[in-house]
Amino acid sequence: MRVYLDYNATTPVDPSVFSAMTPYFAGNFGNAGSIHSAGQRARSAVDAARESVAALLGAKPGEIVFTSGGTEADNLAMFGLVGAVQDAASKRHVITTAIEHHAVLNACEELERRGVDVSYVPVNPSGVVHPEDIRRALRPETLLITVMHANNELGTVQPIEEIGRVAWEANVYFHCDAVQSAGKLPLDVESLGVDLLSISAHKIYGPKGVGALYVRSGTPIEPLFRGGHAERDRRPGTENVPGIVGLGEAAKLAAQKMAGDAGRIGALRDRFEEAVCRLVPSARVNGDPSRRVWNTASLTFPAAGSEALVIALDLQGIECSTGAACSSGAVEPSHVLKAIGLSDSDARSTVRFSLGRFTTDAEIDEAIRVLPGVVERLRALSPHSVSEVSAQ
User: Fold this and answer.
1) Domains of the chain (ranges plus CATH)?
2) Beta strand residue intervals within 161-239, DSSP E
């Protein structure tokens, strides 16, 4: 039995999404920018998808910009805003957190190279940032706050509504990377108080290579690329009609299935964590137990190296991750795990299991059966005992 427990890295395309996309590869292949009938059929499909995405976010269709994914959406939000603000000379400060996805952190590094100051606000040992720490980081020249909704490694959920109020009171733009919360948590851009919000199709059972950025009406955005007038001049290029249709269908399904998925998958995740912590000595769960998305389990297994553990589990049919898929092969321990206070040793002994819509009870039973033995074998090969590593 193969057991896929890496839904935070990517999800399988839902059969309904695949069916919705299929006609737009051949029969309805028109360019959505063309004025003839084939083009107008494609345009109608794109418009319908835009409405579905807007409905998932509590936004207006005209506030949705389709992109190639979450990374482009994050970059468009950050570079687009900084590039568009007229008084950029006086507004040259961005606030973010220490545990953001690299799509945000690496964009911040580039902004710093371009002369923008960036403040990296720390999180507590549970992986949650305090809104007052965001407030204390504000300066007169602050232009943007960017904070993710749910962390991709820990699953911890940030107090976005409270941070939104901080941003509103300071008259500062607020961007939220919601790639890992879309489809798992209700999203309403008005309640959250965000001006910009990023999502990605392949995290919600849609295709890879398409995402969206919510841009509140009136928020200035300079396009990253130069070309035609697609996406109301905010993202030039021929629209990926099949992908956009897939994102629209995935958004529609997410709205319909969210509550049911939360109850069923959350119960599976909790059962998995309880069993593993009971059966594996010294195993522990990372993240805030009361502020986590319901599908994510970050578990530390002292004295069992995470890369070796992931490989050994894969050989036994269990597919999971050391953390962010975008960081695979990185030599340094996870910046997220370091930010919550884990030692290098524990950070390198942590594995992420993420469940999804197609995870079954039998698969969780199999993972619970296999995992303790694999950890025990790896610990037997470790030069350090569990007690030695835990005491460091």
Assistant:
1) 3-9+258-391 (3.90.1150.10), 15-253 (3.40.640.10)
2) 173-177, 196-200, 211-215
